[in-house]
Amino acid sequence: MPVFELLIAGILLGGLYALMACGLNLVFGVMRIINFAHGDLLAVGALTTVSIVTGLHLPFYVAIVVVPLLTAALGLAMQVLVLRRLADGPMIMSLLATFALSTILVNLSILIWGGGYRGLPGVLGGSVHLLGLDVALSRLVSFLVAMAVTLLVWWFLQSTRFGRAIRSVSQAPELAVINGISIDAVRNVTFALGAAMAGLAGVLLAPTFASDPQLGARFGIKAFAVIIVGGMGSYPGAMAAALLLGVLEVFGGYWFGQVIGSAMLFLVMLVVLLVRPRGLLGMGVRA
Amino acid sequence: MNGFKTILAGAALLAAPALTLAPAGAAEPIKVGIALSQSGNLADSAEHYKKAVELWRDQVNARGGLLNRPVELVLYDDRSDPATAARLYERLITNDNVDLLVSPWGSASTATATAVAEKHKRVMINSGGASEKIHQRNFKHIFQSAAPISAYVEGIGPVAEKFGLKTMDIISRDYPAARDMEVALNKIAKDRNIKIEKAEYFPAGTSDYSSYLAQAKQSNPDIWISVGYPNEAIEMVRQFRANNYLPKLFVHNGASIDDFVKAAGKDAEYAVGMSLYEPVLKTKGNAEFVKAYKDKYGAEPGYYSGFGYAGVTVLEEAVRKTGSLDQDKLRETLSTMETDTVLGHHKVDPKTGLQVGVKGLLVQIRDGKRAIIYPEELKTADAVIPMPAWANR
């Protein structure tokens, strides 16, 4: 059994999952919003990337810059027009609202890009020879970016002034207000940032996978599994969970076939929900 | 009130030329009933099927109609739902009194629609259901013009033999068509002495093939064959490339869809797709069909359109041969009739109505286009097998 090869494949797959989960985690951690439209923002990101690179013939790095800005703007619009108005309602309200936004995004994407599949031929397509293995270049890049983004967000929340403001809004909103922090501003920035991360994940998924307006349905569920296992709102937890799930999926698939491999993800999620509902390193859900 | 009368008079004036254009002595049109998906998950593909049928209606009417009567389509939307399809065919038969029936698009709706037609002892052309199970129910009135599932893969045997390929892995999306295809492949493998080392099914939504790639790198199957959706074909070749792996022959039905070449670009080269219809096919009437289709819709017909057109071609031929719309006589004609359509030679098994004439094609992506590599008599290029390694391209 090629243990080392499977391990690398699993870790790289986990990197993709971490990337997808990052923005979802931020939005939940700060705003307590479970964003069902996250995967669809990711799809918009991937499809826009394809349009920029194959339609407008611009270099890939243009997409890396432009697409997160675009999805951030989209996210900000969602927040300002819809979610802000529901901020004080019960959690189910924002949950249903993001579900509706998800459906709208999917159908808008079908109107814009059509129902077919697109891809990015020629971008990060090959492999690099590392440690005696052929490692997929696109996955290596995604993995490194996922690591960097996770660390960056973590550092931002822990060590910057604005990061501390964000944390205080999520942990003690009343005290934050007394200290002159604008809750609205913090929430707007957070949601836009989360959406930008979805866009970035979309940019980096586009070279590996086929992109279509319903991409979100295929990947969104995995991002949820990652943050449930890792602990909602915890960045180190999500990173650890993403890598764990990636490795489990690949080994499970190798030993028992992909049906079991894919099921592993959800089995672990179930066990975590039953045994340790707050996740590996999470802060848990407060009512 | 006056205005209303003017409108009525205007309408009568507009209608008058239409009436005089109808063939002499044939006021009553022949009604052809079809329910097909205009909404739901099959709507995209059924649209092409519908376009081909509508093109045929215009052409047949321009030729003076059928039995000297104009042809009229009665179309309903089955919403991609087999139960709705059954209800709509009930309505077409008992309420709309249509003269002829054509099947819906897709095996699921065709399975229920054919059951309704059989119950009413009405002839139906199955031009949209590939599943062979449709014809394993002792029905007497259903005749398949579509290619059955086994036709999709029939080229694998001869091609494997020609290029000395001995082992095969089936790695497929888990859905009924793939299971049917495994049955067909097992038979081919037995006849041609090919070893199927593995038949693995992955759940819908799978996008990562790392574990299969690791296995294949060790076992090195000659053939990696898969049935599923185009995105899976795209992701497989991209991941082959990213892992510097390639089987000698990669076959996927998704490789014969236009999206595959567009989305996978150069990585798509040399991949082989199962196909049943190509615009370049030199079958009877195909060049004319492709031209008329392009003129009317501005795009080449795909295989969905080919299926639709073949179905109504068979229907028209059967009615002309029979000279009437009598269902019993039509049934007799159809059970032995052979003809040529854009799909190829049409012939059914008289007992079951199963299509046995149409041959499946294999196409290989060459310079961004699909070249036919099987069957020999239709090929437009010689197959390149084994596929050249990534480093040598």
From TrEMBL, chain A:
It holds the Pfam family BPD_transp_2. The keyword ATP-binding does not apply. It is found in: Cell membrane. InterPro entries: ABC_transp_permease, BCAA_transport_permease. Its main location: membrane. The chain crosses the membrane at residues 6-28, 35-54, 60-83, 95-116, 136-157, 223-248, 254-275. It is a multi-pass membrane protein. Belongs to the binding-protein-dependent transport system permease family. LivHM subfamily. This is Branched-chain amino acid transport system permease protein. It comes from Azospirillum rugosum. The lineage of its organism: Bacteria, Pseudomonadati, Pseudomonadota, Alphaproteobacteria, Rhodospirillales.
From TrEMBL, chain B:
Residues 1-26 form the signal peptide. Transmembrane segments: none annotated. Keywords: Amino-acid transport, Signal, Transport. Coiled coil: none annotated. SUPFAM superfamilies: Periplasmic binding protein-like I. Pfam families: Peripla_BP_6 (PF13458). InterPro entries: BCAA_transport, Leu-bd, Peripla_BP_I. Residues 29-366 form the Leucine-binding protein domain. Belongs to the leucine-binding protein family. This is Branched-chain amino acid transport system substrate-binding protein. It comes from Azospirillum rugosum.
